[in-house]
Every structure is written in structure tokens, then in C-alpha cells.
Design goal:
Strand order of the largest sheet: 15-16-17-18-22-19-23
Distance between the termini: 35 Å
Shape: globular
Number of strands: 26
Number of domains: 2
CATH architecture of the largest domain: 4-Layer Sandwich
Helix content: 10-25%
Number of helices: 9
CATH superfamily of the largest domain: Metallo-dependent phosphatases
Bound molecules: fe (ii) ion
Strand content: 25-35%
Largest sheet: 7 strands, mixed
CATH topology of the largest domain: Purple Acid Phosphatase, chain A, domain 2
Length: about 425
């Protein structure tokens, strides 16, 4: 399920045939009849030795009512449009539930989402909690910062099916927004592009699910493909960056209405494990675009167009930077910050475990931009209000239970600051 525009929700379900689906909308009354939804079905072939054919389906609802809890389930119908009940192709899901957002209005437009990443089937420490959260309707969506499944293409693609089934309770009940990671790069990202084809890239003017953006209440949220710097051609890198630049220019034109801009990608622009190339050469390449163009990288655009926050994963731990630019601390204050800051939240849990930090007994070696970090498993929540962002990072214990609050920060922006951000962005365009 993915969040779309105008409270439209798309549903996707992977079954072994191309037979049709219907959806039942029970809404609050539990009495609405079966409704057949607009459906798009297609196949793709896994690139492994077995050349497995994967069957994909996307269902789209009409515009849903705001602030409503819908229940639904998926059933198959035959090619003739009749029920396939009792046949080999028969399938009927259990009942899932989703909520639509309330209408934005003064004083009631804040919302919360979960940010997490680097999560697989094995040792998926955070997943039990995420599955619990869906029933609370406390969060509006989950943003995955890349690397899901470990790997979707493994074992001729069967690991991808296993992961989607494993995560079903979460994916079917809470809208998800994804970005791609290095563990999704196989066969030109075919598993990611097809399994997450329901990301709103068409509405965003991009060619595939690797990049897109949405406007959601006070937030403009952008999914950016950091892997293009490592897997793509120079032309593909420039295409990705040009798209991002145009998207951010447009977002700044609406900034008085949609004041917050968050970009999420997989790899960090900054991380403190200097013994890892991820935090040195690779981070620098991402920031400045080397070798394509030293002045045209991801950080270049985040800075030029006054992005507020960059969310990422890849390192299996948690780190929060202060407002930072060009590998230099800008300020330790989050009040009207003049530059973006970054949060790594790649500690959702997978079979590789957590990434250890370098020995930091030598305090001189600690980067000045580092605000806080935490080495165990956890996840981040982001509450977006008109003039503030509230981030919390919670520990998840190895048995899947909620641990302590490990970090929190409040970013505050005045109306004047938002105006200044839009003005500087317009001048830079
Ligand atoms: Fe990664």
C-alpha cells in the first residue's frame, strides 16, 4: 500500500497468477458490497538461473473519504469475471485495515511517520513492533530508507516473496514509501522497480520507482536513488540530479504552504566510522558528485534548495548530525537552521547485525558535526507540524520489544525563516 495524492491509496498484492482481484470495502459500517477496483497486472522475470516469472498486481481505489478507517480484503476472480472460489487460483486474504488522513486545517495538520531501513527477514528486530503499530493508527506512513529483504533477488527471487509475505501485516495496513539501496541493485534493480512500482513516480515525472516525491500536509518528501552514484552511468547520475533539482525548485515555489522538505535516500552523506569507505570516499562522492562534477552532487542540491533534513540508512546504527555543510559543522542549534541536518536510521535489524562505531576515546577524532549516535537496534519517528519537526529515536531490544528513548530533537522554523529559505532557493535556481 502506498500513500498517493488526494487520499488515493494503491494496493499491491503478489500472487502466482494474473487472475483478477476484487476488494471489499467494509468501511465503518461493515455493510458495503464488494467493489471491483481498477487493476494493473504485469510480469517480470527474475534474472537468476531459474528465470522465475514474477506476477505483480496493483489496485487503485477511488478517492477515499478523509479521516476514515477502511477495512478491506483481496479475493481472486476468474478471467470471466466470476468468482474463482474453489478453483486452484482461488485466494482470499484476511481483512486488513487502513486509515486516511484528516483534512488539513489550522491546528490539526500535524502527523507522524516512521523512518527505518536495512531490514530483512532474518533478525528483523523492529518488525514485530511495526506490526503492532498498525492497529494504533498513530502513524500515517513508513518511510523505508533502503535495503529491504536481504535480498529481494536471492534464491531466484524467492527471498523477495518470503520478505513481502513476512512484512505483509505491516505493508497491508500502513502506507509505505520506499527508496532503493545497494541490496536491491541486482538485475538493474528489477525486483525493486517491479515490487515497488506503486510508488508515485509517474505523478512525479520520473521513469521508474527509483525516484519520486509527494506533498503530504506540511511536508514535501522526496525519495532519491543514491545507488545511481555507484551503479549508474554519468548520464543516469545527471538525470537523477536534474530531476531532483527541478523537483526542489517546484517545492520551493510552494514553500509558504508546504514549509518542510525532507529527502530520503539510502547512503549517508556523513557518518562517523572513518575506518569505512562509506564514511570517507563514498560519502564524498555522494556529496559533491565526484567524478561527474565536483559541484553537482546530492549535498550541493540539498544546500542550494534549502532542504531541512536528509534521512538515510546503509550504516546499521543511528547517527544524528547537527546542521552541516561541506563536512563542517554549521551550528549546534536547530532553531531556524541555515543548513540541512542528517539522520541515519539503518538499525531496523537484519542478519548482518549492527555496525560498530570507531573507538571514540580520542575525542579529537569525533567529527564536530556529530550530534548524537547510538549503536543498537531502533527506529525513528518524525512528527511534522507547521513550524516544527520532532524526531525521536527509540531502541528496540533484541527480543523485539520497545526499549528506551535514545535520542530526540526538535527543529523549529519561523515564518520568516521559511520565507528566507524560499527566497534563497529561488535566487539559486
Ligand atoms: Fe546498504
Amino acid at each position: 500500500m502506498v500513500i498517493g495524492t488526494e487520499r488515493t491509496v494503491h494496493l499491491s498484492h503478489n500472487k502466482f497468477t494474473l487472475h483478477g482481484f476484487q476488494m471489499v470495502k467494509l468501511s465503518e459500517s461493515n455493510s458495503q458490497p464488494w467493489r471491483q477496483l481498477k487493476r494493473q497486472s504485469w510480469t517480470f522475470v527474475d534474472g537468476g538461473e531459474a528465470q522465475h516469472t514474477q506476477y505483480m498486481h496493483t489496485l487503485s481505489t477511488e478517492t477515499l473519504k478523509p479521516a476514515t478507517i477502511y477495512s478491506y480484503r483481496i479475493i481472486t476472480i476468474g478471467d470471466d469475471g466470476e468468482s474463482s472460489e474453489g478453483t486452484d487460483n482461488s485466494f482470499e486474504s484476511k481483512v486488513f485495515e487502513l486509515h486516511t488522513p484528516a483534512k488539513s486545517s489550522k491546528g490539526s495538520s500535524s502527523f507522524k511517520f516512521i523512518a527505518t531501513g536495512d531490514i530483512g527477514v532474518n533478525n528483523a528486530v523492529s518488525m514485530p513492533l511495526f506490526k503492532q503499530f498498525v492497529t494504533s493508527h498513530e502513524y500515517d506512513f513508513v518511510a523505508f530508507v533502503g535495503d529491504q529483504g536481504y535480498n529481494l533477488d536471492d534464491f531466484n527471487g524467492t527471498k523477495g516473496d518470503e520478505y513481502m509475505k513476512f512484512a505483509e501485516e505491516l505493508y497491508a495496513n500502513l502506507p509505505i514509501l520506499t527508496t532503493t539501496g545497494n541490496h536491491e541493485q541486482a538485475y538493474n534493480f528489477s525486483h525493486y522497480k517491479n515490487r515497488f512500482d506503486l510508488m508515485p513516480y509517474r505523478e512525479s515525472g520520473f521513469d521508474n520507482a527509483l525516484q519520486y516525491s509527494i506533498n503530504y500536509k506540511n511536508l514535501h518528501l522526496v525519495s532519491f536513488d543514491t545507488e545511481v552514484f555507484f551503479e549508474g552511468s554519468e548520464e543516469e547520475v545527471l538525470t537523477a540530479l536534474h530531476w531532483l533539482e527541478e523537483d526542489l525548485i517546484e517545492a520551493n515555489k510552494r514553500r509558504s504552504k508546504v514549509p518542510w522538505i525532507i529527502v530520503f535516500g539510502h547512503r549517508p552523506l556523513y557518518c562517523s566510522v572513518m575506518s569505512s569507505s562509506d564514511c570517507v570516499e563514498k560519502a564524498e562522492k555522494l556529496r559533491f558528485g565526484e567524478p561527474v562534477d565536483k559541484n553537482y552532487g546530492l549535498e550541493t542540491l540539498l544546500s542550494r534548495y534549502k532542504v531541512d533534513l536528509y534521512l538515510c540508512g546503509h550504516k546499521h546504527n543511528y547517527e544524528r548530525s547537527y546542521p552541516v555543510l561541506n563536512n563542517t559543522l554549521v551550528t549546534t542549534s536547530y532553531h531556524n537552521p541555515p543548513s540541512f541536518f542528517q539522520v541515519i536510521t539503518g538499525n531496523g535489524g537484519n542478519y548482518e547485525g549492527c555496525d560498530k562505531f570507531d573507538d571514540m576515546t580520542n575525542t579529537a577524532a569525533i567529527p564536530k558535526w556529530l550530534g548524537n549516535h547510538y549503536e543498537g537496534y531502533g527506529f525513528t519517528t518524525v512528527e511534522v507540524s507547521r513550524n516544527r519537526l520532532d524526531l525521536h529515536h527509540y531502541e528496540v531490544q533484541e527480543d523485539g520489544t520497545l526499549g528506551d528513548l535514545r535520542d530526540q530533537v526538535r527543529v523549529h522554523k519561523t515564518k520568516g525563516h521559511v520565507k528566507k529559505q524560499a527566497k534563497l532557493a529561488a535566487e539559486a535556481a
